[in-house]
Amino acid sequence: MKLKDMNERDIISTITRIFRPETIDIVLPCAVVGPGEDDCSVIELGEGRYLVSSTDMLHEKTDFPKGITPWQVGWMSVAVNLSDIAAMGAKPIGIMMAMGLPPNTELDFIKELSEGMDACARQHGTCIIGGDVDRHDELTIVGSALGLADDGYLVRRKGAQVGDLVCVTGELGAVGAAMDSLRNNLEAYPYVMKKLYMPVPRIREGMALAQTGCLTSMMDISDGLALSLHDIGVASGVGFCINAASIPVHRTVREMADSESRLVEWSVYSGGDFELLFTIRAGCVERARKIADFTVIGEVTVDGIFLVQNGRTAVLEARGYLQFGDKV
Amino acid sequence: MKLKDMNERDIISTITRIFRPETIDIVLPCAVVGPGEDDCSVIELGEGRYLVSSTDMLHEKTDFPKGITPWQVGWMSVAVNLSDIAAMGAKPIGIMMAMGLPPNTELDFIKELSEGMDACARQHGTCIIGGDVDRHDELTIVGSALGLADDGYLVRRKGAQVGDLVCVTGELGAVGAAMDSLRNNLEAYPYVMKKLYMPVPRIREGMALAQTGCLTSMMDISDGLALSLHDIGVASGVGFCINAASIPVHRTVREMADSESRLVEWSVYSGGDFELLFTIRAGCVERARKIADFTVIGEVTVDGIFLVQNGRTAVLEARGYLQFGDKV
Fold first, then answer.
1. Most buried residue, A6, A21, A127, B1, by most Cβ within 10 Å?
2. Chain B residue closest to A125 (CA)?
3. Is residue A66 within 8 Å of A179, Cβ to Cβ?
4. CB-based contact A111 B18, cutoff 8 Å
5. Which positions in chain B touch A323 (Cβ < 8 Å)?
6. What 3-state class would DSSP assign to A105?
7. Which residues on B lie below 8 Å from A138 (Cβ)?
8. Contact B226, B320 (CB under 8 A)
C-alpha cells in the first residue's frame, strides 16, 4: 500500500507502534509521553521536572501560503513549534532550526528568514539555540522546540473529566477564512491574513493556565477544533457537547462568511488557528479568567462529540487539516 | 548573493550572528553553547546538569548513497544525530524524527525505515520519543537528539591545550573509500560499505572518555578529520601536528588505495566516518586506554595545522565534506 492511499493518522500509528515505549526493554531511559501521544513528548528529569519537546516540518509547497514574506516564514516556523510547548503548559527553553535551502536562494532571504525566527523566539521568552543548514531543492524548515514543566503543572491531552468545561483561547476561523480568500482570489482582509502569516503561539496563556492547577487537558488546535476535540476525546476517554454560538469568532471573519455553514467550516473544521483548546474544572473558571482570556464553548460529556447549533444537535465530524489522505 | 556562490561556513556564520546569545536580552533563558559553536547546543538545567541537543537534516539526493536499504536509511538518520551527542560526552535521553515522505512511498518502506531508526536508538541506550510526518517530494529526515551531561564531564570543542595529545576512536577512511567505489563503479568491499551505510555513533566511548575527566576537547569527524581539526583549532585557539603514519586505517582500506595520497585523501579529507576526535592530557592516556579504544595521532601545538608524512611536514588543508560551495 502507498502512503497516498492512507490517511495520516493510520501512517502515524503504524510508525509509532514500532517506537512504542512498552516494547522497549525496561532498562532503557524512555519518554513518559512517547511518539504520537501528545503535542510534545515528555522526559522525566527527576526532582519533579519534565523536559517536553516537539518537532515540526514545514516546507514551501504545503505550508507557506501565497504572499508570505521570508521574515514571516521564519516567524511561522518557530511559532508552530512553540505552540506545541504552550499546549503542555510548559516554559520554552530553546529551539533548534534545521533548514533545507535551495542553492539559488538569495542570502538576503536567509537573513530575513533568520530574523523572523529570532523575533518569534525572543518575543516568547526563548531563543534559537542551534540548527543545521542543508542544500535542498525545496525550502524545508524543521524546528525542534524544548521546554520545561514542573510536576503537577504539565497538562496533557489525557485527563478531561465529565462535567469539566471546554474552552479555547483567542478567536477561531481567521485562518480558514484567509485560506479561502487565497484559494478563491478574494479580497484579503488584513486581520485574517496576519493570523495566517504570523500565528502567535499561546505560550503565556498556556503557562499561566497550567499554573492554576485547574486544567485537566490541553492541546493546540493547529489541525482545527474538530480534530483536536476528537484527539482529546480519545486520549481522555470522554465526549463533548459544543455550543456553536459560543465559539469565539472575530467580527471580520463573520463579515467575510457568506453563510452560517461557512462560518462553522472555518471555525470548527479548518486548521491553522494556533489557539489552545483545554478543559478546566468548572469551579475554577472565574479564577482562571483573571490570568488569561478564554471562552467557554461547551462541556465534557460521557461520550460522543456533538455540536449544538440553532437548537439542533449534530455529530461533530472528525475532519480538518491532514497531510495525507482527505479524511481521517 | 546566492547561497550556491558562498561556502557553507559563511552561510552558517551569517545565520548564527542573528541568533547569537550575546545579542539577546539578559533576562531571556539562553544556551550556554549556542548555534554554530559546537556539535550540540547546551542548556544549563541547574544542579550541575546540562541538556545537550542537536539536529541534522538528511535527504535522498545528498545523503543516502546508492544501494542503501530503507532500514539502513533509518539507522543512519538516528546514528548521525547520536554522534553529535557522543561528541559532547553526553548520555542520550531521546531522539525525535521528522520525516518528509513522498506520497508514492510504500508503507513497507516506512516500516523498515522506522525499524532501522528504532534499532539504532535502542542499541545506543535510547529511544525515539516523538516526531512528525509530512508529505514531501523528496524523502527528507530530520532527527533531533537530546542528551544529558553532568558538570565537569561535558566536553566541548574549546579547551585543547598545547602539549595535549590528539586522538581518534576507530579507524578512518572507510567511508571515503566506499564513496569512491560507488562513484567509480568499483567493487564494493563489504567492510567499507557497512561503514558507509551503518555508521556507529560512539556513544559508549564518548561517555566513558568524558568521565575520565581527562579530555580537553572533542567533536565528531563527520565532515572529515581535516575540517574537524580546523574547527577544534579555531575553538581552542591552538594548532596541531598530526602524524600521517599514526592515523588508524583498516587493512581493507589500505588494500583498496592505489597510492599513499589516495589513503590520505580518504582518511584525512573525506567525511562520513562518525568517529570521535579528541584531545587528552598526556598524563591520562594510559588510564583512558583501559576504558576505550583509541589511537594517538598527534599533538596540540601553539598554531598552524600540519601533517607529517614520510619525514616531510606539510600544511593540513581545511577541506572536507561541505553542503554548499566546494571549499571552506
1. A127
2. B28
3. no
4. yes
5. 133-135
6. coil
7. 136-138
8. yes
Query: What is the three-class DSSP state of A145?
Result: strand
Phi/psi for B89 (5° steps) reads 75, 20
Domain segments of chain A as ranges: 38-150, 165-315
User: pLDDT exceeding 70 applies to what percent of chain A?
Assistant: 95
B142 has a chain A CB within 8 A of its CB: yes
In terms of CA atoms, which chain A residue is nearest residue B325?
A103
Residue in chain B lying closest to A110 (CA): B15
Cβ neighbour number for residue B1 with a 10 Å cutoff: 10
* Residue in B268, B309, B261 with CA at minimum distance from that of residue B175: B268
Helix (H, G, I), strand (E, B) or coil at B107: helix
In angstroms, rounded to a whole number, what is the distance separating the alpha carbons of residues B241 and B227? 14
Could you tell me which of B78, B328, B79 has the C-alpha nearest to residue B228? B328
Residue B53, beta-bridge partner list: B41, B146
> How far from the centroid of its chain's Cα atoms is residue B282's Cα?
24
Q: Of B102, B121, B9, whose CA–CA distance to B60 is shortest?
A: B102
What is the fold, at CATH topology level, of the domain defined by A38-150? 60s Ribosomal Protein L30; Chain: A; (3.30.1330)
For residue B236, the Cα-to-chain-centroid distance in whole angstroms is: 18
> Out of B55, B122, B130, whose CB is closest to A98?
B55
Helices (H) and strands (E) counted in chain B, each on its own, are 11, 12
Shortest Cα distance from A90 to chain B (angstroms)?
A: 14
CATH 3.30.460.40 fits B165-315, yes or no: no
Q: Dig out the grid coordinates for B126 from the structure.
A: 535510547
Amino acid at B101: L
Residue A299 has pLDDT above 80, yes or no: yes
Give the tens place of pLDDT for each residue, A162-206: 999 999 999 999 999 999 999 999 888 999 999 999 999 999 999
DSSP structural state of residue A39: S
For residue A20, the model assigns a pLDDT of 72
Q: Is B107 on the interface with A (CB under 8 A)?
A: yes
Partner A contacted by B85 (CB < 8 A): no
Identify the bridge partners of residue A301 per DSSP, sorted by sequence position.
A239
- Chain A partners within 8 Å of B24 (Cβ): 122, 127
Chain B residues close to A111, C-beta within 8 Å: 14-15, 18
CB atoms A35 and B131 under 8 Å: yes
Cβ <8 Å between A126 and B14: no
**CA pair distance B168, B155, nearest whole angstrom:** 15
Instruction: Tell me the chain B residues in contact with residue A36 when contact means C-beta distances shorter than 8 Å.
Output: 130
Element counts in chain A: helices (H) and strands (E): 11, 12
B18 shares contact with chain A (CB less than 8 Å): yes
Q: A21 contacts in B (CB within 8 Å)? A: 127
Flag if A61 and B115 touch (Cβ within 8 Å): no
Q: Are A60 and A52 in contact (CB under 8 A)?
A: no
Q: What is the mean pLDDT of each run of 10 residues along chain B (328 residues)?
A: 86 85 53 86 93 96 93 98 98 96 94 96 94 95 97 95 98 95 90 96 98 97 95 97 97 94 95 96 96 97 97 94 51
**DSSP line for B208-267:** HHHTTT-EEEEEE-TT-HHHHHHHHHHHHT-EEEEEGGGS---HHHHHH-SSHHHHHHHH
Name every residue whose Cβ is closer than 8 Å to that of residue B33 and which is 6 or more positions away in sequence: B40, B41, B42, B156
Q: Which residues of B touch A135 (CB under 8 A)?
A: 3, 62, 323-324
- B103: contact with A, CB 8 A cutoff: yes
Start-to-end CA span in chain A (Å): 17
Closest C-alpha among A146, A153, A151, A176 to residue A256: A176
